[in-house]
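Lab channel / #folding
Pinned by the channel admin:
"Please post every new chain as: sequence first, then the structure tokens as a reply. Keep commentary short and put observations after the output so the thread stays searchable."

First post following the new format, from NK:
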Amino acid sequence: MFKWKKGKDIGLAALDTIEAMRHHDTYRQDWHAHPFWETHYILSGRLTYEFAGRAPVTILGGAFLVIPPDMRHRAVNTAGTPSVHLGTRWRPPSGPVACSPFTALERKAIFATLADRALAAQTIPPDLTRVLRELFAAVENDEPDAGYVRLLAWTVLSRTARAMRFHSTAPREDADAVVRAVADRIRRDCGEHVRMADLVAFSGYSQTRFFTLFREKMGLSPNSFLTRCRIDKAKQLLMAPDGPSLQEIALSCGFATASHFSATFRRYEGVTPSSMKRR
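Reply from TO:
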């Protein structure tokens, strides 16, 4: 589901658009940039934002992200995690704005706060959550009262700046749940080219924190766990009657060459894959 309201349709020239989205599938936006301040609020689920020349940022449910004007970026949901997402695009402050409850100086102060904490996931406090859900419902249901939607939009902007001044740490999912989700993804994709950077981004943690948590919960590093999954998959193929060749098994289990597969298999299992295949 994707619904939106244009700022001009609700008499709010400072606002370009409000977008209400319910995501259920994997997707990857095209790279883009525009002259607006973007705010993205994840009411549930998770989304990752990739930036040109910067590390990606994963936002979990209950957090938001501010993206400054002209920043090249795209949204990514490679896991297909269902999510509820509200986004706004605001024009940079410049002079008087009709129907604004704030003075020009107050609006400049709001956007200065957004600039100070941009590109870092922030907590959505309870008072902002309530207004966000009202605004989401208004957009989703095509609320005809433009004044009501306009007031909600201004309130969201003001409370976003306030949240950024007084709240700093975005919520994390339970560490066990995150590690389980990453481990499931490794098991599913072990036959493909798996990049550790993608797993780190998927977890929402820093690389150091992610590796520490994964080792604590799984007893292996992510790299070792990936190799173990590949070896286990290879063993199933090797023991299948009239199974594929060693070269085919190597490639289907994520190994670049048969020789690399054989050496790794022997290191983990103590026997060569060809000897296991003959059993």
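NK: The longest strand covers residues 15-23.
TO: also worth noting, The chain has a mean pLDDT of 87.
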